Amino acid sequence: SLKMASDSPESLMTLCTDYCLRNLEGTLCYLLDNETLRLHPDIFLPSEICDKLVNEYVELVKTDSIFEPHESFFTLFSDPRSTRLARIHLREHIVQDQDLEAIRKQDLIELYLTNCEKLTAKSLQTLVSFSHTLISLSLFGCCNIFYEEENPGGCEDDCLVNPTRQVLVKDFTFEGFSRLRFLNLGRLIEGVNVETLLRPLASLAALDLSGIQLNDVGFLTQWKDSLVSLVLYNMDLSEEHIQVIAQLHKLRHLDISRDHLSSYYKFKLTRRVLNLFVENLVNLTSLDISGHTMLENCTIPSMEEKMGQTSTEPAKSSIAPFRGLKRPLQFLGLFETSLCRLTHIPAYKVSGDKNEEQVLNAIEAYTEHRPEITSRAINLLFDIARIERCSQLLRALQLVITALKCHKDDKNIQVTGSAALFYLTNSEYRMEQSVKLRRQVIQVVLNGMESYQEVTVQRNCCLTLCNFSIPEELEFQYRRVNELLLNILNQSRQDESIQRIAVHLCNALVCQVDNDHKEAVGKMGFVMTMLKLIQKKLADKTCDQVMEFSWSALWNITDETPDNCEMFLNYSGMKLFLECLKEFPEKQELHRNMLGLLGNVAEVKELRPQLMTSQFISVFSNLLESKADGIEVSYNACGVLSHIMFDGPEAWGICEPHREEVVKRMWAAIQSWDINSRRNINYRSFEPILRLLPQGISPVSQHWATWALYNLVSVYPDKYCPLLIKEGGIPLLKDMIKMASARQETKEMAR
């Protein structure tokens, strides 16, 4: 019943269901008294649609952190005259007693309740209302459903002294459930008498008693003519159990597997037991004996083994007892047993740890109900993906995604699953993955980051995100990714490696995106977070990748985004700039990133007065002579000063240095640059440069702008010629050539 991650496009049905659930008020419902959801009176929906709405709702609440659950959701299905339910799968804390109570008038055929720990004995009573129609029922892991609250004494004051006690319900049975054929009682609470509970059922076809300890299972023989599937996972077996099982002659599926780590088992499998199954259970198509220790050797000596290709024919079986099978089994569970490594295994599908196929079969078979086994299987897949090459990539990815979604709160699965995803999404597998599948990976990775502050999970998730094209592939979850990364960077204690990856991702996310994205991220506290990181590094006197990436991220996020530039100034960004310059005089990359950022600040007219201090102007003037990173530092310093000069002599509110002196140094700097320099800069728009052309107030600014354009269009013509034309640069240059105030060499370059 698990929903497998799929790679084909969503059906129209799925898209509509998803849309309606995310917009209940705008589609199927209205709000009564501003709080209760009510179905519009003219809506009638058949079970095909209602089942899907309920099952998808549960899935969304579980796996989509943005999706808001509704208190009154299940009440929409209270009246079978307008909404019909037939087959529903509910899981975990999403479901409470009142939710089942709300749908009690429905004629349910199939009801799966998986790990619904909030359900109490009130829900047992609700089950009775489905008794005349129910064919399939699962109460797997519903550990409180046989408990009711008992209030001793019953008086108000007394209650405060004795809070409610939980008492086991002893008198419930499946009396009246006349159509029930499939029943899963896995992980049923101790103390419930299974035999009494089940006795009223006339003809059971499938029974799951996983994790229940029963010394006497003789009562199972009452269904020996109807039982086709029996699961006794983790039940401690004995000779008596084996004798009973051998009488269930109709069995097609038998699972007596166990988790070999969970507890000590006296029982050991022998040749005789397997022979007994093969002889008596002639209809068997599926057998699981995973985790068992073999008391004696069941294998055919390698001398007698038929050589040649591996075979599924029973006659060639390397496991002696299985030579008696009439035909190969459809499935044979051998996970964590020595038998899975043999050559000839008479089954089409084998779960084990020998190779990729067996490991994937194990993940597929055990994900839903046995996370403890699944996490070990995923760990084996991780090794395969890391060391060898995965041959069934698509299937591997889908299985890991499904496991991560299903067990969002299981730390072992989150750790092993996120590690496996890193290797399964790296570049060598890129071509084989669709957009949809890669999006599903991103969703589960973000879920993991949200649920776990644990270092390993966080690191694995961040590393996996690095396998994607950023920002393009993360655009559909843009806000959420940024919030999660900033959250990581704002934690007081930080793991160095995670910090480095997170800053790198933040930087990539704000590079080459629209301004509204940058503004939104700025409002999330991006600027403040980066400045705090820089402050910490300064205090430690270290200039590492984190320091450089943080300045680079600030350079990107302030590009043509005045609000973020203002934030930078308000949060003492200039003070940090000067301190970094002083502390790390030789760090060229750092200087380039800092000046690129100040270039963005200088483009904002309202903020320029804050740059007009003797200290800042002297620093910018001195950097004109810098040879750091080719011409980049000198170029950016000159750009900052060009914008300041553009405001005219009256804006020059300082005595030292003199304006003319700075202008002279700017001319000298520009003349020293090689016009064919390859560049370490990326312009999305020329608008801030072009505005310096049509003016006579500052010929040097005009010259800097013309030099910049000339260099970019001559070194990178394919990229920048179209941009210059698109943004109206040609008429501006033509007009400038006619201006009397423009310098001759500027006009030459413009021409």
From TrEMBL:
Gene name per UniProt: Zer1
GO cellular component: Cul2-RING ubiquitin ligase complex
Lineage per the UniProt record: Eukaryota, Metazoa, Chordata, Craniata, Vertebrata
Sequence similarity: Belongs to the zyg-11 family.
Subunit structure: Interacts with the ELOC-ELOB/Elongin BC complex. Part of an E3 ubiquitin ligase complex including ZER1, CUL2 and Elongin BC.
Keywords (A to Z) from UniProt: Acetylation, Leucine-rich repeat, Repeat, Ubl conjugation pathway
The protein's name: Protein zer-1 homolog
SMART domains: ARM (SM00185)
Zer-1-like leucine-rich repeats region domain ranges (all copies): 196-337
Pfam families for the chain: LRR_Zer-1, ZER1-like_2nd
